[in-house]
Amino acid sequence: MKRQFDDILLGSIELFCLAAEEGSFTAAALVAGVTPAAVSRSISRLEERLGVRLFVRTTRSIRLTEGGRGYYEECRQALAQLVEAERAVMGQQQEPAGVLRISMPTTYGHHRVLPLLPEFRRRYPQVKVEVHLSNRNIDFVTEGYDLAIRVRAQPDSTLIARHLEDAPLVVIATPGYLERAGTPRTLEELEDHECIQFELPSSGRRISWLFREQGREREIFADGSYLLSDDVVQGGVTLAKHGAGLFQTYRFVVEKELAEGSLVEVLQPYGGRSRPFTLLYPQNRHVPLRLRAFVDFLMDYREQWRAVDPPGGQTTNH
Description:
41% of the residues lie in helices and 22% in strands. It is an alpha/beta fold.
């Protein structure tokens, strides 16, 4: 077979991937232990060889072009395959290893996944886990994530989607608030209560409360004096726990408080709605062992979560 790549080209591809992941030539140079000028020269060599621009450069930042994004994804997969091939030859392929980068919503991370990570690390001590907690969507290609968890994930042919759970929703309040303001018995009575609301910071759109009434799904935009954005679930639960009013949240967030009686579920006859959480990762021919191990690990816990949630919590995916 005719040789198509030399050591300089392979090194340039590695520096290109580092620059794409780090977001700057300087940061890539620090990681690689070379100068920013060396990174810049490597990128220029690649661009000359390919005949396309890989980055849009400004004085302060760089970003991948459309062609650069596609090239990065292919190069990232190829480099990962080379690493795994080395491990296979060296007899290390039986043990997951390396860095696993995960993005997940703040609330789901705190209440579902983060408590499990010490157990995952005990099973796979050679895997280092980097966790990004945020409610924003991420770009697998430019940000270099291996896996993400999202609520109401949109279909994407480039990603593999594994359903984790339909998380049941509940409306909660403290006994003190209900003693002071009364317990709502119908959805119409929400108008007479302090309902803690939140909005999406990206659009400013308020999020409706979800109910089921006589077999039909209903959305209500309840009103109140509190409006939250960003870390809305944690903020809303904290307000509710201090008697601020009613709040709709995931049952898994307040399971302990409901069991203790410090919070009370209301409007139970109108329950049964949920939101779906999905695990996403790139649809590559080669899936690293560390990623495969983590996916299997979460799938095992998925069955436990389903066993804990009441049957009424999985009737819908909204």
